[in-house]
Backbone:
């Protein structure tokens, strides 16, 4: 018997059954701050997949998109601590926070069309001065707004489910964690079992993913395929029917189909959507992503969270000296009112004119994410230029999310479908 021809295998040959939904097994990840926009999530939903929005800095997002004033109110309330390093009294108004989350989710869900679903990415490491209380407010706001699913990211979420076990939608909304190892999954499942509320899916994120990594400095020693195989084997041994969604470094439809063949229910992808019209990055930043070369990638320890973070070396955030913005933002403040950037800023000397020198080692993520100055990215960002056309003026043609989604869904043979050119492509140059 001859071996099956896998060159024609494609994502569209598979479907993800979750509850009553039969989905195209493509999930767009929740990139913050509002990089995975409502428009991007709704495109995935319309095409039969899953789109994420993100709750990263959701009060700032609500103010920018829905004409609210939560950030200003918080800043004014805590103006007395602006010139000091002690931020122990800087706290979020929990009802404002819940309302901001509700605004973002409801404005998205009210526009939902199509056979797919919309999820929200909720991060545990946004400790916000009161980790449990602020996480509870964000989870409740998302469920109040009618979100289809909640992806629990940036942490082990040991106690997250218990925070909202009394919410009316606790057993209705789809919930799944992001993990990077069998060990992390076991920890989450132990808590879920106590509440008799097992996850509806699990996203397995490998070391090539964008943004913060669930690995240490040894991230190069791991690979997504091995971790997925280990988790699939563990779930089979435990007779647990939990859909597994690989994420991180899945650049083509052929990559995606290979994971579906090995037993994954769907895949999560994001990097290729950063240069789409629907993505929330400013136009100039999309061009900065499209021109990336492999040598421009760095995995750095500049994040105050303590996790390694992958980003482009020419990100404007590096070695800035921005004054801490905790009164307005403060999303990374610990329950004690501390942050690694606060410490680094305080330890940075001034020049002869009294001006603060560039801060070394850490960046103010809150400020720089709000300004799109921190170019977090997946490992294969340097391949984006090969998915589009370079225009005569040197810029890269921006794609539509529909084009990228359908290329993942229907492509075969490791091919990437280029868009119809807006103009004659520029001649090839050395930096391609």
Residues:
């Amino acid at each position: 018997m001859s071996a099956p021809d896998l060159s024609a295998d494609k994502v569209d040959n598979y479907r993800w059954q979750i509850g009553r939904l039969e989905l195209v097994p493509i999930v767009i990840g929740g990139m913050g701050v509002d990089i995975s926009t409502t428009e991007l999530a709704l495109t995935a939903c319309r095409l039969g997949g899953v789109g994420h929005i993100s709750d990263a800095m959701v009060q700032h997002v609500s103010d920018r998109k829905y004409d609210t004033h939560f950030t200003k109110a918080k800043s004014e309330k805590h103006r007395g601590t602006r010139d000091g390093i002690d931020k122990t009294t800087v706290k979020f108004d929990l009802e404002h926070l819940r309302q901001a989350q509700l605004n973002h989710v409801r404005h998205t869900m009210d526009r939902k069309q199509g056979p797919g679903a919309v999820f929200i990415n909720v991060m545990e490491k946004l400790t916000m001065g009161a980790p449990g209380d602020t996480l509870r407010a964000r989870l409740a706001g998302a469920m109040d707004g009618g979100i289809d699913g909640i992806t629990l990211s940036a942490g082990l979420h040991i106690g997250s489910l218990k925070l909202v076990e009394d919410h009316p939608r606790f057993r209705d909304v789809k919930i799944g964690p992001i993990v990077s190892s069998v060990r992390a999954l076991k920890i989450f499942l132990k808590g879920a079992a106590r509440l008799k509320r097992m996850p509806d899916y699990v996203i397995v994120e490998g070391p090539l993913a964008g943004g913060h990594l669930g690995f240490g400095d040894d991230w190069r020693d791991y690979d997504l395929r091995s971790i997925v195989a280990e988790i699939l084997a563990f779930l089979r041994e435990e007779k647990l029917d939990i859909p597994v969604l690989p994420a991180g470094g899945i650049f083509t439809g052929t990559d995606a189909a290979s994971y579906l063949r090995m037993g994954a229910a769907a895949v999560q992808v994001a990097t290729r959507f950063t240069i789409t019209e629907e993505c929330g990055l400013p136009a100039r930043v999309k061009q900065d992503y499209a021109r990336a070369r492999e040598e421009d990638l760095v995995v750095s320890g500049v994040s105050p969270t303590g996790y390694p973070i992958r980003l482009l070396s020419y990100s404007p955030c590096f070695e800035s000296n921005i004054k801490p913005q905790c009164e307005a933002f403060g999303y990374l403040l610990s329950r004690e009112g501390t942050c690694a950037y606060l410490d680094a800023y305080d330890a940075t000397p001034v020049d002869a004119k009294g001006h603060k020198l560039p801060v070394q080692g850490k960046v103010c993520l809150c400020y720089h994410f709000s300004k799109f100055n921190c170019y977090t990215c997946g490992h294969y960002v340097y391949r984006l230029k090969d998915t589009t056309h370079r225009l005569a003026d040197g810029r890269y043609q921006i794609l539509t999310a529909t084009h990228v989604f359908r290329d993942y869904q229907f492509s075969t043979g490791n091919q990437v479908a280029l868009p119809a050119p807006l103009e004659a492509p520029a001649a090839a140059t050395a930096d391609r």
User: Anything to note?
Assistant: The longest strand covers residues 117-123.
